[in-house]
Write a structure and sequence with these properties.
single chain; alpha/beta; 6-stranded mixed beta sheet; 5-stranded antiparallel beta sheet; 7 helices; AAA+_ATPase; Antibiotic ABC transporter ATP-binding protein; ABC_transporter-like_ATP-bd
Length: 234
């Protein structure tokens, strides 16, 4: 049985003359939280957009659950990249109903995912009136609708207050027990340190480090060392 839900092999992506991602090979274990760290502009979002089919790699290979990735695998991948894709004039349930209709999913999933992200009690309140934390949780609920094996969250705590960050942290921690592997992309070391099982550090489009997150490890020093070593010259 394959122990990895996601593998990339020498993945590359160029934008005109710039190499956004260069020979990246990540290994993400099933039912774990993988923290993808890197400065802004390091290539994290580019990598995740290739895994979610939003961008096409120039070269390299993506394996999902032991086989070569295809667009069919997006049925088992949920993602929240950048901001939550919400209709602000609709309620939480109505936002989810739009997606279940498009995806051909049963409406029973609406109540299930609202319960997971603790938004059952929002009633007729429109998404545009939600706090930033509630919007992020609704975005995660949308990503969970198809009951994914892999959930990709790109900078999910951006713009959240400390209370919202704490709530989101607890929610993310609960996913591996439900059979959902999480890739958490962030430049906030403290958040990843408290939540991740394994980490990868990207700088200048290069995966400079990958390994298990060990207790007592000086993550800040490791991050700075890798970021300096591989950062792009401006």
């Amino acid at each position: 049985m394959n122990e990895f839900i996601l593998e990339t092999k020498n993945l590359c992506k160029n934008f005109k003359k710039q190499e956004a991602v260069k020979d990246i090979s990540v290994l993400v274990k099933k039912n774990s939280i993988y923290g993808l760290l890197g400065p802004n502009g390091a290539g994290k979002s580019t990598l995740l957009k290739m895994v979610t089919g939003m961008l096409r790699a120039n070269s390299g290979e993506i394996l999902f659950d032991g086989h070569k990735w295809s667009r069919k695998d997006l049925r088992e991948i949920g993602s929240l990249i950048e901001s939550a894709p919400l209709y602000e004039n609709l309620t939480a349930k109505e936002n989810l109903k739009v997606r279940t209709t498009v995806l051909g999913l049963p409406d029973s999933r609406i109540e299930e995912v609202l319960h997971v992200v603790e938004l059952e009690g929002t009633g007729k309140k429109r998404a545009g009136q939600f706090s930033m934390g509630m919007k992020q949780r609704l975005g995660i609920a949308i990503a969970l609708l198809n009951n994914p094996k892999l959930l990709i969250l790109d900078e999910p705590t951006n713009g959240l207050d400390p209370f919202g960050i704490q709530e989101l942290r607890e929610l993310i921690r609960s996913f591996p027990k439900k059979g959902i592997t999480v890739i958490l992309s962030s430049h906030m070391l403290s958040e990843v340190e408290q939540i991740a099982d394994h980490i990868g550090i990207i700088s200048g489009g290069i995966l400079g480090y990958q390994g298990e997150l060990k207790k007592g490890e000086d993550l800040e020093k490791l991050f700075i060392d890798i970021a300096k070593k591989y950062r792009r010259e401006k």
